[in-house]
Amino acid sequence: xxxxxxxxxxxxxxxxxxxxxxVALASIGVRASFSENEIVTETAGxxxxxxxxxxxxxxxxxxxxxxxxxxxxxxxxxxxxxxxDGVETKTKNxxxxxxxxxxxxxxxxxxxxxxxxxxxxxxxDRITTANMNAGFALPAGRLPSFDLSFNKTTTEDHAKVxxxxxxxxxxxASSSYKFEYREVDASINYSFSxxxxxxxxxxxxxxxxxxxFSTDASREFMDGKLKASMNYGFNLSETTTESLGTAxxxxxxxxxxxxLEFGYPVGGPTxxxxxxxxQLIDNDRNTAVVPSSxxxxxxxxxxxxxxxxxxxxxxxxxxxxNLYITSALxxxxxxxxxxxxxxxxxxxxxxxxxxxxxxxxxSVFRRFEFAFSETNARYFKIVNTLSPPTLGTIEVTEIxxxxxxxxxxxxxxxxSVTRGFSGLTLVYSPTDRLNLGMNITIDTTSDERxxxxxxxxxxxxxxxxxxxxxxxxxxxxxSTYASTISTPSNGDESETNSYTAAFxxxxxxxxxxxxxxxxxxxxxxxxxxxxxxxxxxxxFMEVYTGIDLNLGATISSSESPASGSETESSSYIWGLKxxxxxxxxxxxxxxxxxxESTQGGVTTTSTSETLDMRISYNPNRKLYMSADFDFKPExxxxxxxxxxxxxxxQCRFKYNSNDTTSGFxxxxxxxxxxxxxxxxxxxxxxxxxxxDDQVETLYTRASIRF
Amino acid sequence: xxxxxxxxxxxxxxxxxxxTPAVQDLQTRFSSPPxxxxxxxxxxxxxxxxxxxxxxxxxxASLIDGEGGSHDLLHAPVNxxxxxxxxSQVLLVEGFVAPGDYIGLRLAxxxxxxxxxxxxxxxxxxxxxxEFEASLNLELDGGQSTVLSLEWNPSASVEKRVVFTPxxxxxxQRPSARGLLLYISNSGSNYVTVIDRSxxxxxxxxxxxxxxxxxxxxxxxxxxYVLNSRSHSISVIDALYLELRDTIDLTAGINPTxxxxxxxxxxxxxxxxxxxxxxxxxxxxxxxxxxxxxKAVPVGHRPSFVLGDKDRREIYVTNELSNTLSxxxxxxDLVVATIRVDxxxxxxALGDDKVYVFxxxxxxxxxxSPSDRVIVDTLILSDPPSRGIKxxxxxxxxxxxxxxxxxxxxxxxxxxxxxxxxxxxxxxxADEDRNRLYVSNFGSNTVSIIDPKGERVVGELDVGSKPYGxxxxxxQQ
Lengths: 706, 477
Known about the structure:
The structure holds two protein chains of two kinds.
Chain A: H1 5-18, E1 27-43, E2 46-64, E3 69-84, E4 87-102, E5 109-121, E6 127-138, E7 145-157, E8 165-181, E9 184-199, E10 204-221, E11 226-244, E12 248-253, E13 258-262, E14 275-276, E15 307-327, H2 331-336, E16 341-346, E17 353-355, E18 358-362, E19 367-384, E20 394-407, E21 410-431, E22 434-449, E23 455-471, E24 475-488, E25 494-508, E26 511-524, E27 527-544, E28 547-560, E29 565-581, E30 584-599, E31 602-620, E32 623-632, E33 636-646, E34 649-657, E35 661-670, E36 676-687, E37 694-705
Antiparallel strand pairs in A: 1-2, 1-37, 2-3, 3-4, 4-5, 5-6, 6-7, 7-8, 8-9, 9-10, 10-11, 11-21, 12-20, 13-14, 13-15, 15-19, 15-20, 16-17, 16-19, 18-19, 21-22, 22-23, 23-24, 24-25, 25-26, 26-27, 27-28, 28-29, 29-30, 30-31, 31-32, 32-33, 33-34, 34-35, 35-36, 36-37
Chain B: H1 2-18, E1 39-47, E2 53-65, E3 70-72, E4 78-81, H2 82-87, E5 90-97, E6 100-116, E7 119-122, H3 127-130, E8 131-140, E9 145-152, E10 158-159, E11 163-164, E12 168-171, E13 181-186, E14 191-196, E15 201-207, E16 212-218, E17 223-228, E18 233-238, E19 243-249, E20 256-263, E21 271-277, E22 282-287, E23 292-298, E24 303-309, E25 314-319, E26 324-329, E27 334-340, E28 345-351, E29 354-359, E30 364-369, E31 374-380, E32 387-391, E33 395-400, E34 405-409, E35 415-420, E36 425-431, E37 436-441, E38 446-451, E39 456-462, E40 467-472
Parallel strand pairs in B: 1-9
Antiparallel strand pairs in B: 1-5, 2-3, 2-4, 2-6, 6-7, 6-8, 9-12, 10-11, 13-14, 13-40, 14-15, 16-17, 17-18, 18-19, 20-21, 21-22, 22-23, 24-25, 25-26, 26-27, 28-29, 29-30, 30-31, 32-33, 33-34, 34-35, 36-37, 37-38, 38-39
């Protein structure tokens, strides 16, 4: 744990106070807060206790560097301690944030920001998150608007074996221009963005450049009675992901850094420093090696205890050694000899360890092949502990080693989505009482992905609406039609149509009513899948001052030829508001509904009722009490009280109960002085079950600021 | 990529150096204090129940300090009518004074009259040159905003039928009980307005950063987060005491416009804020525990609105130019789906396990199933929808910002009524306990109070400049 928040704050504060010629600070603030939250849970007689204690400190300042440039700093740090049944977890976080603000006299804005978080859990490795941002904005005026922004977030843990190490950067540029040409209000918009993500752990990179263009225009005709507007947009987004493919393992010759040799007098596991012998690894498999350790003309295997080996610059995984020879003897003779082969490994070319191996003579390549399980070592050697009868020379020319290599190819996957959309809206209002509207939207998307068939989807939506005020302020009629058609290249066309009509009247200021009708249908490949009909009537009346009544009725039916089901239902609602005084409000709401549905010749019926009441009472602005009762379908009740006895104290109490649980909570906050705030609360929830489970929560918070 | 980054950085420096400060800053279009060290004082006036028809003109409003010094709040005369004030509370004065302790409020009247039987009669002004003084105990810090609530009883304001004796009491800012509070962010200024919903009056103001727009509430600790679009920051307000507790600097994103809060499902008090940046086409995440930017998630073009589903642990973002809905999983904070909708989606609502996308450009609402990631229905409107909410027994209420209207739907999502509200309605919230909808009118600096079942506008309140967000605290939270 290397975080030194106090030191950090001191350094920054010193810089702020004394940097530059202008020592004066615009503002500096210090805050500290403490909170403790304790939860005691009792389930089936087992009590569990968890406590969370958090301390927060912060220092912020604003340094006015010039008239237009300011440096904002905000340094915060937190200490938290979580204790769950005696097991403690501590976490410390430090969050320095610095922002360079340019508050221009001109109409543009420039911001540079950097914040960094060092999070240090007590039982885990430190995690660093850094966020860097830059932005420039030139709002629209006579010239097009122009926005540029850059954002980069990096996250990295500090574990020995990293699990998090990634970076995401996004660059965006956009421009918009509004203008008027021949009574047409128009705008043109273009933007480009590029998001790059890199995960350094799994070595994956994703890049998504996106281009977007849109334009819209609107114009009024016939002295504003006809308004037309249209828009068109185009979006091209291409995502390329590069990642490591499936790893494959294959055998390959591992190039040694040195050949090693030592003459026959000594062999075996005895400590032995072998002599460098470049001829053993010179890739010349025709010329016998002339040993440098002894005076023999060549390494002749008719003499025992030759030490022949090779070394690498670093530890290598090796599973086979090949010893190449040249001899006039036939391969049958050579393979029939017992050379007493031994294979050894060493990490230092001094101490050698014997390795179990098998040997085979390959007459095609004229080599002995020594196979063993893959072994990691820097030095390998072969010793012929026995010598065959002297019938001719068997001279060594080369030694090679084989290991395994892992190859991980990079996979690249590209997908592109191209989208074009357009819309047209017409609104015609020949008089103040008549309003007709029409809109059309066509939206086409083409999705192309590597290794998949291209998909194109076309969505078309049409809407019509009309509203006629029969008698101004008293009576109006409104109707709408909406249709959505979706045509995918890889499936059937689907369609949804709906029609509504509503007639509403307001015969008095205190009375209004409406009757409405709704029909909708869903089609797939031209065949009706389902239909719905619904009719509604509602009335509102202010019966007397402080007494409002509303009534409503709905009947509806639906039919689904596709599933062979039919449903008919009706529902009624009513509501009563009583406000005998301005300080007391009583709301009563009720509903009843019934339905009958038939599917597969089986008919089922259902009914339901609801009834609830809300009472709110505030004799003065310091006290507010409310009660909520649900009588149907289930019984529940909630009582709440908020009270402000003085300017510096607030209290809250709440009790709620239903069939299975009940709870109580209270809350008290006190602000004895302006910089200080104290807050404490308690809540308990009881569960009505065999074991009488309950959860208690107690919390305390205190904060001070200057 | 490195080459592009280098070009970008060079371009950035070049552009910053060559653009001359020829165009005046947008911020100067809005009213601002003479200095950031001044305190803002908002003087509101409301009536006790009265049928007396009185009118008067105020020529001076000032605070009195402990040494008797007068500090002007008002710079132009204001005419007041008890008939108008009787309809709803009005904002009398917005002024700025130096920080310090103040012990009184002085009002100077130049004219007063009473209406009787269809005629008006002038009244004799108070003694001391038509001045009225009320004592108070007000401690103001630099940059602070506060509300002085004047309660006027016109019935007790006339003595001997001819003498104007203003019966006005002054109350300094104090919080109401939690379940009564309603917050309005004033995007044309740098403070949020606090309304008591039972009184239907402004009772407080809290200074935040420049251009406050979206708001989000952490219900677990009653911290209100206010997104300041011009100062690129988030103000953290203690929602109970109407006090600024902290400011989070947004180090990423350009032109932040909207925000939502997603509580951490494992932690007792904190979570993440998701902020939509209209110009940089991304959603920036802020961890409320550490108050720092965690990452920026690229979404579509010109993201316009954001909403979170706490049960599904998903965030929905409308992209106005791309005509798409981006769905972000809050578990790994990645875009998990992009759904193509109709023209210019600018708003969202949740309900009935559906996501409703308001397509302002095509006068339609796309109904999206978040489970199947497809559009399951399309609703057609006569006016372009911008914002909306499902409330009061699953009914739909839609704001038409471009046509200054609110559209009412029944439970079958069929349009039943359209009503006019203030100019450019942009934000709304539902009070289920009291049958009330609150709508902020961006263009007329007011909040409309609506009876949702009666489908009618029942009141209007003056708030700050360009009100945007509306957020309420209720007793059930």
